[in-house]
Structures are given as structure tokens and as C-alpha cells.
TrEMBL record:
InterPro entries xref list: Ig-like_fold (IPR013783), Peptidase_S8/S53_dom (IPR000209), Peptidase_S8/S53_dom_sf (IPR036852), Peptidase_S8_Ser-AS (IPR023828), Peptidase_S8_subtilisin-like (IPR050131), Peptidase_S8_subtilisin-rel (IPR015500)
Keyword Cell cycle: no
Family that this chain belongs to: Belongs to the peptidase S8 family.
Name this polypeptide is given: Peptidase S8/S53 domain-containing protein
Active-site residues from the entry: D68 (charge relay system), H100 (charge relay system), S254 (charge relay system)
Domain of life assignment: Bacteria
Organism: Paractinoplanes durhamensis
Amino acid sequence: MLVRGLLAGLAVIAALSAPAADTTIGHTDAITANDPGYAGQWGVQHARVNDAWSAVRGDARVTIAIVDTGVTKLPDFGTRVLPGHDFVNNDDDASDDNGHGTMAAGVAAAGGNNRLGVAGICWFCQILPVKVLDATGAGNYDNFAAGIRYAADHGATIISASFGGNEDTQGLRDAVDYATGKGALVIAAAGNKGTTQPHFPAAIPAALAVGGVDEKGARYSWSNYGASWVDLTAPGCNPAQQRNGAIGQYCGTSSATPFVAGVAGLLAATDPAPSASAIRTALTTGARNGQVDAVGALAALPADGDTTGPAVAFGALAATVRGLVTVGAAAVDQHGVTHLEMYAAGRLIAVDRAAPYSFTWQSPLSGLIALELRAYDRAGNMTTARRTVRADNVAPAVTVYPNGRKVTARATDASGVARLELLVNGKVAGSYAGYLRQFTIPAGARTVAVRAYDKAGNLRVATVRR
């Protein structure tokens, strides 16, 4: 049977505009990629992929098969495009003569933060090109089934299938079941006719069927739907590179599918490596309103066997502090951080269970203080970060030596003197960045004083008697 691919849902726009980002989502530890097309990737923020990147960005042990029109090797893919197969021409040259498969590969696994193209979801995942659609986007069920089997036999962890038709065949079912039995997760496009009619292979129970939503989370009118067979939705319009490297807008459930495949790749890159069934369950149970959510999916993965502690770090913190100090922190973990603890001089100050992590600490009078952060993940692993700061809540000592219209001021302080100020009639009449200075008192001065600041911000005022 000859059927068309999902190219009817593909829109390529040479001049890519940047849709507005979803401003309702917090991105405490979010990564902002420097790729040229990233500004238009609203889906990355909508699905909290940029938050998930703080914990995991993929791994070369994970292979995402792009079963499509083939894949053109772009610089943004680096050396991660594996040898594949062309079932249309029956050879091993799986290069793309249409563009659909290359854009799908870019959505799923283009390199990120490399100043090239767009930021794919899974930056370090391998790409296995499997060509089952010809230059016009047409293909047949025999090739579809053969492509899925080939991907499973050649180590695909995730199989992204942006093709299909309305007919259910035993051969296609057998192929999806075969891949599932080999430990692969088949993720398939729900179709672009805007109906509830099942689309195959997406509607095969062993496959994960994906529909498309816009930046507000609403279903695109062209996306097929149906709670009985569509398992998940994802951003349906994503920037991607065409075969010539130009960035275009790639729309359709064809685009939503590799988006989910990329998120699945991130999950597969965690340690210990989860099974395909665990990844599928995490994608669906970690979803928000049926929409893929990378952070939720990571948190839904089983943490059993995880021996890697979170990454934790202090936020910006001055070397010398005084008064009530706010201490910020960042912590990420592939399976989720449960809480952070802050200690000062060995004493527990506070516990924070949700990002953005922040602690308030009353610093002591003076001295060196050891601060420690302890971050815990879902498996109970703990990681520490340590800083030493100097507490200084003591104002500098100030001595003044008046001599007619002159006054010499000297200040001393354990943390250093930042500046001296001459106050005349209550207003600053002179300033000096240092600890020793002779000031001239202007005519008409009724009151004269010297104010000294130390480097921690403490101050002391000394009155000049004339």
C-alpha cells in the first residue's frame, strides 16, 4: 500500500519569526542556548526542556532513530549521524532528498549551545537515519514496518516515526511489537487531518501516539486527537534546519513526534538507564494536562539504583558579609532534588524544598564562618558545597585631628576601609577612597564630622570639635 507521509502538516518559512514564550513557567536553573534559532523555540520553554537541560542533555549511548525521508548530515549534528539504510532505493545511503527527516532529526537531536542552527532536545544523542519515504513524502507499509524493525535491530533506544496512514495492518503491528520487544520505544505521529480517526502506527497500543499543541497549550486544529488512542501532546511548530542549513518553521504532528522523542532521549540518558516502558510511563505520568513536560517526566522516572548525587552550588555571595544575609543556591539532579539544607559554623540554619533555593542567615559579630549546602535527591544521595565568608558587623575605628581649616581623618578596620567622607552641616562635602585623608573645611561650616565605611558596609561617624 502506498501512502503519503505527514508532509501536508509541514510548513517551511524562510524568515523565521519568534513566537512569544510561555511566561507562566518559572525557569530557576534554566539553560538559555546560544543557537541562532533558539529565540523562536517556544516549545523548549513550554515543555520545560531548558530546565531539564540543567540536569541532563543526552548521552552518546542513546540512539534516536529518525524513520522518515532520510537525514542530511548538517554541522549541527556533528559526528552523531550513524550509518543508516534507505528502504526506498534499497541501499545504505539514507541521505534526505525531501527535507522532512532532516528537520525531524534537528528537533530531536540537533546540538545545543554550539552557536549553530537550533538547539535540539537531546544534544548528545546519536541519530540513526532510516529512509522509508521518498522525495515526495510517499511510502508504503512494507517499508514502514521494515524501517521500524531495522531501527530496533541497530540499537535504537527511541524510534521517531513521523509517517503513517489510516489503515491498520498486522505487519505494522508486528513491527512495533518487535521493536518494543527489543527494548525500543516507538513514538509516532497522530496525523494532521484534525479528526479523531485513528492513524497508524500511532494508534497501535505499543506505540506512543503524539498530537500537536500551540504555545498556549491548545490543540492545533490540524492535529488528530482522541483520548482513546492519542497518548501525549507536544509543541507542534518548532524551528529546525532544512537540508541547506536554513532555519524554517517545522509544523505538524511530524514535528511534535521528534520533540517527544528528544525528551525520551533525555530520560534514556539518565543513570541507571531506564527501560523503554519506564520512559513511556514517565512521559505520560509526568505530563501536564496531557502535554509533555521534561521536568515532570524526569521526576517520574524510578530512582532505584541511582547513586549519583545532585549538583549544588552557592549563588553570588560576597566574601565579607554583615547583618541579615540572603544566601542563594542552585541544585539539579537527573531524578529530582528533594531539598537543600544550609549550615553555618556546623549549625543547621534552614531547609528549602523548592527552587528557587534561598536561605536567610543572621551573621555573627565578626570572624571567619564556614557555610555548607547539602543537597538531597529522591534516592537519598547527598552532595555538599562549601564556602567560607568573613562576618563583619563591627564599624571601623575613626580618629580625627582638627587643625584650623584642616582636619585629618584616619580609620582602621579588620576587613579594610572603603572610604572616608567629610560631612559639613549634615551634607557630604568631600569623599576619599582610602583610610587616611586630610580634608579642608569650607567657610561657613557650623557642624563638621567624618564618616568612615568599611568594606562590609559598616559605618561610624566621628564629630570634629573646633
